[in-house]
Amino acid sequence: MSGISPRLPLSFEDGGISLNKTLPESIRQNLKNLFLTNPGERMMDPAFGIGLKKFLFEQNLDSTYSKIRTAALQQTKKYMPFVNLSDIRITTDSVDSNIIYVAVFYLITPLNQTDSLNLKVQP
């Protein structure tokens, strides 16, 4: 088995740990970790992470969405400078306003390849 990085959550296949086999898979996983990690949660780097869960109970306003977009742009520029975010779409669930859907569209600059990441954040 060969791969680039362990696939999270950890699982096993063919007698070994499941791996991300392509660079875009690994980048998508790292971007997901960046969005879901709370600032202060990562050891030795308290500035890492956007912490989407902290926005769950804020008011459903454009200013809240703007905070998420700003944090995403700043964090991606700092920790993943090879990724260019082209669009971030944020919506809430029509039944439960404490669920946020975030769709991130991005370009992997060295590969000149576009990709997307869809996140559902809930308490």
Radius of gyration: 15 Å
Distance between the termini: 36 Å
**CATH structural architecture:** Roll
Number of helices: 2
Q: What is the total domain count?
A: 1
Q: How much helix, percentage-wise, in residues?
A: 25-40%
* E-strand count: 7
Could you tell me the strand content as a percent range? 25-35%
Biggest pleated sheet? 3 strands, antiparallel
| Shape designation | globular
Helix-strand sequence: EEEEHHEEE
- Average residue pLDDT: 93
Poorly predicted runs are: none
CATH level 1 class label:
Alpha Beta
Per the CATH scheme, the topology name is Nuclear Transport Factor 2, Chain: A
Structural class call reads alpha+beta
Strand order of the largest sheet: 5-6-7
Features of this protein?
123 residues, alpha+beta, Nuclear Transport Factor 2, Chain: A, three-stranded antiparallel β-sheet, 2 helices, 26% helix, globular
Commentary on this structure:
By secondary structure, the chain is α+β, with helices and mostly antiparallel strands. It has one domain: Nuclear Transport Factor 2, Chain: A (Roll), CATH 3.10.450.40. Helices cover 26% and strands 29% of the residues. It is built from two helices and seven strands, in the order ββββααβββ. It has a three-stranded antiparallel sheet with strand order 5-6-7, with helices on one face. Strands 1-4 form a two-stranded antiparallel ribbon. Strands 2-3 form a two-stranded antiparallel sheet. The N and C termini lie far apart (36 Å). The model has no long low-confidence stretch (mean pLDDT 93).
